[in-house]
Design brief:
The protein has 129 residues and is α+β, with helices and mostly antiparallel strands. The protein has three helices and six strands, in the order ααββαββββ. It has helices at 4-8, 12-16, 48-63; strands spanning 20-25, 28-34, 70-79, 88-97, 104-111, 116-126. Strands 1-2-4-5-6-3 form a six-stranded antiparallel beta sheet, with helices on one face. Strand 5 and strand 6 form a beta hairpin. The longest helix is centred in the middle third of the chain and has 16 residues, at 48-63. The protein is globular and about 45 Å long.
């Protein structure tokens, strides 16, 4: 696998959602997304799928940070608070368990004030290269 940042530039879905990878190192990653009108649901707040995409992308950065191709096999999100247009959201992912085959990762999604908006957990599967 190439450099993780270069590898993740190929994630067109996250790129089209306006997600920017701020930092990544083994076991940690941080990304940002500004909520635009394209992210809003019928209720006028950020759609849950946009929050999930932000968390999932940041999780992928951590899962692949060891240079081994890793795919999610489970993912769970709990929505705690809504976000509005114009808010900047941050996702911080931490690898809780760096298992050679099945890593476990948590992600917290917050707004610029640090309010927790969503909690995300995922396990992955590392492929043999």
């Amino acid at each position: 696998m190439t450099n993780i940042k270069d590898f993740l530039k190929n994630d067109r879905f996250a790129s089209n959602a306006g997600i920017e990878l701020l930092e990544v190192k083994e076991g940690k990653a941080k990304a940002r997304m500004v909520v635009t009108k394209e992210h809003l649901n019928a209720g006028g707040v950020c759609q849950g799928g946009a929050l999930f995409t932000l968390a999932d992308f940041t999780c992928a950065a951590v899962a692949n940070s060891h240079g081994q191709l890793t795919f999610s096999i489970t993912a769970n999100i709990t929505f705690i608070h809504s976000a509005k247009e114009g808010e900047t959201l941050y996702a911080e992912a931490t690898e809780v368990m760096n298992h050679p085959r099945v890593p476990y990762i948590t992600v917290q999604v917050t707004n610029e004030k640090g309010d927790l908006l969503a909690a995300f957990t995922s396990s992955g599967y590392r492929k043999e290269l």
